[in-house]
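Example S7 (structure tokens).
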């Protein structure tokens, strides 16, 4: 498929379609072409950041999300996804701040609450983690990983009955959730 290299719309839309269909290399090429035509289109930077994240090109993805945020600071998804990358490379405080920014932009952003919970859980601040996971579930009762994470915390503090309930809820919501099945098995092993 030949597209005029200076046709922003065609490059952007086809690049986004390729990203959605997991043709990531093609998506990367087309989104970069779109950005050569219009380097100030925040959504193109955001979509390219997502593609680069899936390709494990983390540093380039970080640059894309930062550019998307500089153009449109109100993009909660870009803040959240940049937070995920910072968390991945060990910049935990930066990740926490970005998740909080995403929530400030969109107070109903369940994924950002779940991500904050994961940070607090990692550092054994279970009370804060539980608060964020419960907020995640309040906003999205079908958020299976929040139930799984609550199960992990319950298991770690020897509340095995609660852990079982949380894991079973996660599995009910996502029947192919291997991690939740594995965690449920760990609980039954110690009973």
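Recovered sequence:
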């Amino acid at each position: 498929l030949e597209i005029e290299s200076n046709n922003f719309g065609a490059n952007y839309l086809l690049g986004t379609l390729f990203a959605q269909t997991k043709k990531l290399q093609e998506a990367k090429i087309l989104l970069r072409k779109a950005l050569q035509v219009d380097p100030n289109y925040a959504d193109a930077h955001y979509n390219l950041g997502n593609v680069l994240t899936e390709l494990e090109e983390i540093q380039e993805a970080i640059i894309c999300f930062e550019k998307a945020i500089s153009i449109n600071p109100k993009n909660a998804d870009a803040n959240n996804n940049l937070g995920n990358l910072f968390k991945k490379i060990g910049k935990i405080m930066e990740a926490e701040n970005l998740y909080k920014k995403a929530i400030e932009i969109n107070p109903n952003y369940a994924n950002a609450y779940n991500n904050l919970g994961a940070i607090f859980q990692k550092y054994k601040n279970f009370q804060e983690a539980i608060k964020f996971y419960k907020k995640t579930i309040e906003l999205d009762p079908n958020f299976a990983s929040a139930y799984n994470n609550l199960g992990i915390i319950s298991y770690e503090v020897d509340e095995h009955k609660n852990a079982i309930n949380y894991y079973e809820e996660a599995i009910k919501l996502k029947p192919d959730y291997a991690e939740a099945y594995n965690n449920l098995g760990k609980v039954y092993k110690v009973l």
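Notes on this example. The mean pLDDT is 96.
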